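FAQ

Q: What does a record look like?
A: Structure on top, sequence underneath. For example:
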């Protein structure tokens, strides 16, 4: 199933891969992946940002690892060398042995688009524009008073979970579990079904709601941003905004194996946000994340038995989970 999901979902979907300023200088590169597709982001001499399939056209080795700054990208196997524009510029013995088709052997370029400081890549050959993937999310973020370009990058928080990627996504898509499992979050946010609203439009699933009239606990939700908004863009790009000072976090849900999932979140905040508030908000989010880890790993351990054919979803509170499942089914059908 995961192989099918990689082929039919992740290899043809948009995914957030990182920040433009992580590959800011001409010649800088950064190797990463979209689903299981190895890619490399490259800033060329003219300042153009590109994404390439990080796979050598000779015999398929990964070309780059990690990140750094180079004038060319050289495969470590037989030293085929690519320019920052992806073109094959040197291949030992190639001409001597009759090779003439240098031009056709460049790194395969993939669709890359940006939203403010954020970089997205879609490995599919006929990717719809990024704007279709993002839909009304940029307008909602701007509408909350958040100017993405004015925010400061804070940190990337990475995690791996012993659970299938869909269990992680489904956990994100409902707050039915919040009163039980997230006492801290529920002391700040109004998670009652009449306040915490769910919406879906194609591949976009959105939850939004206000803080409690009298929030309690460790996180102060007062500030310019009045409501929280939490989006999942199918298959696995997560976007969070909490009420409070301008803030934004984004990252992918990436399957590593049938029962293993990698996630990261890049956190951004207003330039003038004070350190105490920043620390408080990161700790608050880490607490919610730790609680969710236990939940999804317990679900994985439960469904692994294989002896329960199906679960039961609440038609209102879990409608985004149902929608997500139908998107997966449609993609695999
Ligand atoms: S596989 Fe890259 S040079 Fe041979
Ligand atoms: Fe949760």
């Amino acid at each position: 199933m995961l192989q099918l999901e990689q082929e039919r979902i992740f290899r043809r979907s948009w995914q957030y891969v990182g920040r433009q300023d992580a590959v800011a200088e001409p010649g800088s590169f950064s190797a990463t992946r979209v689903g299981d597709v190895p890619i490399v982001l490259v800033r060329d001499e003219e300042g153009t940002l590109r994404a390439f399939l990080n796979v050598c056209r000779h015999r398929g080795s990964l070309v780059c690892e990690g990140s750094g700054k180079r004038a060319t990208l050289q495969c470590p196997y037989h030293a085929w060398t690519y320019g920052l524009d992806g073109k094959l510029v040197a291949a030992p013995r190639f001409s001597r042995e009759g090779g003439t088709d240098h031009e056709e052997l460049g790194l395969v370029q993939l669709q890359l688009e940006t939203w403010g400081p954020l970089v997205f890549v879609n490995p599919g050959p006929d990717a719809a524009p990024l704007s279709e993937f993002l839909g009304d999310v940029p307008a909602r973020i701007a509408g909350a008073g958040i100017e993405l370009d004015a925010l400061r990058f804070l940190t990337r928080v990475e995690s791996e979970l012993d659970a299938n990627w869909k269990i992680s996504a489904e956990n994100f898509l409902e707050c039915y579990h919040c009163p039980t499992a997230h006492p801290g979050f529920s002391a700040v946010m109004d998670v009652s079904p009449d306040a915490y609203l769910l919406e879906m439009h194609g591949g976009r699933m959105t939850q939004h709601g206000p803080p409690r009239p009298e929030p309690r606990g460790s996180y102060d939700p007062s500030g310019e941003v009045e409501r929280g908004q939490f989006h999942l863009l199918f298959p696995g790009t997560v976007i969070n905004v909490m009420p409070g000072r301008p803030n934004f976090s984004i990252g992918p849900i990436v399957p590593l194996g049938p029962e293993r999932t990698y996630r990261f979140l890049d956190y951004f905040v207003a330039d003038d946000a004070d350190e105490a508030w920043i620390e408080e908000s990161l700790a608050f989010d880490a607490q919610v994340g730790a609680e969710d880890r236990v939940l999804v790993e317990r679900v994985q351990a439960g469904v692994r038995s294989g002896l329960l054919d199906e679960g039961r979803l609440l038609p209102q509170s879990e409608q985004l989970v149902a929608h997500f499942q139908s998107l997966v089914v449609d993609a695999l059908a």
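Q: Is there anything notable about this one?
A: The two ends are 12 Å apart (CA to CA).
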